[in-house]
Write a structure and sequence with these properties.
By secondary structure, the protein is α/β, with parallel strands linked by helices. It is about 40% helix and about 20% strand.
Length: about 220
């Protein structure tokens, strides 16, 4: 099924270029030139990914992201001309999936979209079970011993990564590349911080530290 992308960009030439390029790449697109229209469009139909510029009239990209996150965990790729760390951290605090900075190449944009959609695709079984944990990949709900957990999108993807391959050790670099994007230049300590928060919410010894290497969900005994 063709994936649908909402392009939120206020510069008409760039908006048209993005729409044309992504359609040629096999995606269906819809476009909005300001934050208010973007939110209205998002609420009116299904989208598989939002390509969201930061600098927008009426409501900026961060405001749009916050409104979307109140109702959906749809993947969001934020486009910005601002390369500052504070701006990126603000976006990641709103569960933005990745950033791309203007000016960017179209092939790089296409690859980022492909990677994000692959991560969020939920192919295969619609649920995962591990010890007392259960993950529903369709509704993105997680329970521990029947207790519902309130996970962020990043925490959900971290847990999904571990439970999809019990026993496999993931280095911090592997997790950073997988969940934050292959060219995200960040401190690997961000992985440790997310693991710490996830462990606290799980309330059990589900994720093991492999000293000097990384993390894993221990392989269950047969």
């Amino acid at each position: 099924m063709m994936k649908t992308i909402l392009i939120v960009e206020d510069e008409p030439d760039i908006q048209e270029l993005l729409c044309t390029y992504l359609r040629d790449a096999g995606y269906e697109t819809a476009a909005a030139g300001d934050g208010v229209l973007a939110v209205e469009l998002f609420r009116s139909r299904h989208f598989d990914l939002v390509l969201l510029d930061v600098m927008l009239p009426k409501i900026d990209g961060f405001g749009v992201c916050e409104l979307i996150r109140r109702q959906s965990q749809v993947p969001i790729l934020m486009v910005t001309a601002l390369d500052g760390e504070d701006q990126q951290l603000r976006g990641f605090g709103l569960d933005v999936d990745d950033y791309i900075t203007k000016p960017f190449s179209m092939p790089v944009l296409l690859e980022k979209i492909r990677v994000i959609l692959r991560r969020s695709g939920g192919a295969g079984s619609s649920s995962l079970r591990y010890r007392g944990l259960e993950m529903d990949l369709d509704t993105r709900e997680v329970t521990a011993e029947g207790r519902p957990l309130d996970l962020t999108a990043r925490e959900f993807e971290l847990l999904h990564t571990f439970l999809s391959a019990p026993g496999r050790v993931f280095t911090r670099e592997m997790l950073l590349a997988k969940l934050w994007g292959y060219d995200f230049f960040g401190d690997t300590r961000v992985v440790d911080s997310h693991i710490k928060n996830l462990r606290h919410k799980l309330g059990g010894d589900y994720i093991e530290t492999v000293r000097g290497v990384g993390y894993r969900a221990a392989k269950e005994n047969p």
